[in-house]
Amino acid sequence: MCDYEGRDFGASYIDSCCIDGYLWDLDSCDEPGGPLFDGGDMPCPKCNTLEYLERAKEEAESCVSGSVAGSSGGFAYTGESIWLASVKKAESLNPDAAAAALQKMGVVETLFPGGGPDGCAVQRYIYCGESK
Ligand SMILES: [Zn+2]
Asked: Is the pLDDT of residue 131 over 60?
């Protein structure tokens, strides 16, 4: 458990906290300070950085694009933007763990809409190794 707090459940205020490396929705309790009912699936970007980035990689490599409707206007995303936003978040919260995780993961092939046969293109990010 760390002191991470963020906006990961769609609210415009702080609505997530970290319990044992996973994020929980602070709005999912019946009473202030009571037990939380919703969460436990999202790895914490701060203290569970490797798993957080692995999850983001999976998403970035399988999802081409989409959009989210939100109270603050919503936004559109691509696999590539998911990845870049996740890396940025991890690096700002835990630079050392983020660097180690990226090194370990090596190559990430993110998707975005493009001119390929399936209507998508691949942007490859390479993190492993110094130049050989
Ligand atoms: Zn945490």
From this structure: no
60, 105: one domain: yes
The total number of structural domains that make up the chain: 2
- On whether both 29 and 64 belong to a single domain, the answer is no
- Residue 71 vs residue 45, higher pLDDT: 45
Averaged pLDDT for residues 90-106: 97
* Ligand 1 geometric centre to CA of 55 (Å): 15
| Structural element, H or E, at residue 82 | helix 79-93
Together in a domain, 85 and 50: yes
Distance 5 CA to ligand 1 centre (A): 8
Nearest of 77, 86, 85, 76 to residue 111 by alpha carbon = 77
Q: Can you give the residue range of the structural domain that contains 3? A: 1-43
In tens, the pLDDT along 51-74 reads 999 999 999 999 999 988 877 778
**70 and 126 belong to one structural domain:** yes
Kindly give the distance from the C-alpha atom of residue 15 to the centroid of ligand 1, in angstroms, as a whole number.
14
Q: How far apart are CA 86 and CA 118, in angstroms?
A: 25
Distance 126 CA to ligand 1 centre (A): 26
CA of 69 to the centre of ligand 1 (A): 26
